[in-house]
Amino acid sequence: MDYKLLLQDFGTPYESIPFSKIKTEYFLPAIEESIVEAKQKIEQIKGASFNVTPTFENSVAALERASRRVDQVAQIFFHLHSAESNEEIRNCAKQISPLLSNFANDILLDGVLFERIKRVWEKRFDDGLKGEDLKLTEEYYLDFVRNGALLDESKKQQLRKIDEKLAKEALIFSDRVLKANNKFTLEISSRDDLKGMPESLLEAALEMGKSKGKEGLYVFTLDAPSYMPFMQYAENRALREKMYRAYAGRAFLDEETDNRATIVEIANLRHERANLLGYKTHADFVLEKRMAGSVSAVTNFLNDLLEKSRPCGDKEMAELNEFKKRIHPQVEGMYAWDFSFYTEKLKKEKFNIDDELLRPYFKLENVIDGVFEIAGKLFSLDFKEVKNIPLYHQEVKTFEVYDNSKAGAFIGLFYADFFPREGKRNGAWMLSLKDQYREGGVDVRPHVGIVCNFTKPTVSRPSLLTLSEVTTLFHEFGHALHGLLSDCRYRYFSGTNVYWDFVELPSQIMENWVLEKECLDLFAKHFESGETIPKEYVERILAADKFHQGYATLRQLSFGLLDLSWHAYDPKGIKVDSIVEHENRALEKTRVLPYVEGTNTSCAFSHIFSGGYSAGYYSYKWAEVLDADAFLYFKEKGIFNQEVAKKFKENILSRGGTEHPMELYKKFRGKAPTVDALLKRSGLL
Predict the structure, then answer these.
(1) Would you say residue 50 has pLDDT above 60?
(2) Do 88 and 217 lie in a common domain?
(3) Which residue, 42, 127, 346, 364, is most buried by CB atoms nearer than 10 A?
(4) Catalytic: 132?
(5) Catalytic position from the list 64, 84, 139, 476
(6) Between the CA atoms of 287, 291, 294 and 299, what dihedral angle is there, to the nearest 10 degrees?
(7) What is the per-residue pLDDT across 382-401, written as a single tens digit (0 to 9) for each?
(8) Mean pLDDT over residues 597-608, rounded?
(9) ∠181-619-264 over CA atoms, to 5°?
(10) Is the pTM higher than 0.70?
C-alpha cells in the first residue's frame, strides 16, 4: 500500500476514509500528484479556448470539477492536523500548505484561464444562465478578480510570495498555540490545595495524572474541561492566578512559543495583500463577500451593541464586587482569576443553580440521543450507529444518517469525537471529510461530524456535561446539519460554504432548544435514577440565562473590536514590543477587569490568525441577531412546528451558498431580521 491509496476509490462503506491504512508520509506525494492531475485538466480547459467557444459547461463547471481530488486529500490531512496531530503531521503541513497556496494562485492568476471565465461571465445573461449556474459563474469571476487576475505580471508574482508567506505563518502560529497549551500542567499533591473542587473534577484530575504518568497527583491542564471548572470552583486564589496567567499568557513572552512577531507579520502581509488588490485594508477585502458588506457597517453594529450592553455590564460588575466584599471582605481587588469563581458563587446564591447540580442530568450519551431525536422531530432524520466505518481514533463514533421524509434515503455519515487528548487542538468544531454535490445523476452525500473537548468519563462516573458543554454540542451539531442536509449541485456552494457572517445561524439557532423544557425532557435525565430534570431546575436555568449577559456581550464585542484593530487599519505602526499597548487601546471600551501583566489575547487568538475568521469575528454577534429572530418564529408557531422547520430546511440548511444569505433568510422568515429579538432575549432591551 502506498500514497496512491489516497488517489483512488477506497472500496469502503460509502467511500469513507480508510484512516487505518493511511500513513502520514502518503499525504505529500498524494497532494503533489493530485495537483499535477488537476493542472492537466485545467490545461485542457485552457487549450479549448483556441478552438472552442467558452461556455459554462466547458469552462466554469469544468474548472469547479478540476481540483476535486486535491480538495479531498487536503480535507483529510487538515482534519488530522486539527484532531490527531503529531510532530510528523505538523512538519508535513509546513510543506503541504505552501503547495496548496501556490496551486490556488496558479489557477487564480492564470491569464488564459481567467479570460475564458471572463468571456462566460460577460455573456451570462445572453446565454440564459440562471440558478446555481449563474451564481457559480459570478462567484468564480469575482474570485479571480479578488485574487489578482487583473494585476500585471510583476504584481501577480508579488501576490504569490505574500500568499506563500501567509500560509507558512498561519501554521507557525497554530503550532505554537498547541505547543504552549500542552506545555503547561498544574500538578497538585494535596487535596487541601483543592478546596471547593467538586469530587467529580478531582476524580478527573487524578485520571489525568494517571494518563500522564503522574499517578497519585491531581493534574490540571489548559484544556477547557480542566481549566474552566478549576477557575470556577478552586478556593485557592494563588492557584487560580497561576492557572489564569498560564492560559492568558499562552504563546506570549515565551522563547519557544512566542507568537508576537508572527501575528505582526500576518497582519502586515494581509494589509499588503489587500492594498495590492486595490482595497484600503484587509477588512475591506474580506467584508466585500459578507452579509455586513463594509467596515463601517460592522463598526456601527459593534458600537451599537456596545452602547446598549455597557451599562448592563457595569451594573453586573458592581453587583459582583459587592458580593465579593460581603462574603470575602479580606480579599482585595477583582481580577480575571476571580471573575469565574465569584460569578459561580453569586449565580448559585441568586438562582440556586450551578454546573454540578445540573451535570448528573447531562450524561453525554443521553445528550447525543436527545440531539438526534430533536433532529428527527424537526427534519425527519434518523441516526444509526455503525461499527464498520474506519476511524482516525478509537474514541470516535460513526453514524449513518437517513431522511425519513424521503423514504429513509441515506443522506450522509456523521462522526462524533468528544474528548480532549494530546495532538487535538482546543475548542469545538465541525469536521467535513466529504462535501455534498450532484453530478451525472448521482447525489454524492456528505461525510461530516463534530469534534469537541468535553469532560471525560472516569472509573466511577460517565461523561457528565456542563450546561455550557451541552450548548456547545448543540451548536456544533447545527453546523453538521448544515452539511448533512445540503442539496446543491456544486461543491462550491454546498453545506457550510456560505458567507462567514451567515454560517453561524444554523449552529447558534440550535442552542435555543437547550433552554426549552419540551426539549430538555427528551434527554435531560439523571444518570443514576433516570429521573427527568425537575421543572424547578429548568425554571432556574431560564432565570439564570440572562445572568451576566451584559458581561458576555462585552466579552464577545471585545474580540470583534480586537479583530478589527488588526485588520481594519494599517498595522504598520504595531511593533512586537507594542502589542500589549495596541491591544489595551482596542479593548479599552469593553474592559471590565484590570489588565494583567504578562498576558495577551492576540498571541493565542486562533480564530483570526489561523482559523479563517480574520475581520470576521463580529459574525458571532451578527449571527446571534439572525438566530434570535429566527427562533422567535419557531416560538410563535411551536418549537417543533413542522411548517417552520420545513422552511428552515428548504431555505437555509439545504441551500448552502446558492443565493445571497439575506435573500435566503427572507424566504425563510418572510422579512429581514431585526436586533430587537436578541436584545430582548439577552435582557438588554
Answers:
(1) no
(2) no
(3) 364
(4) no
(5) 476
(6) -110
(7) 999 999 999 999 999 999 99
(8) 96
(9) 50
(10) yes
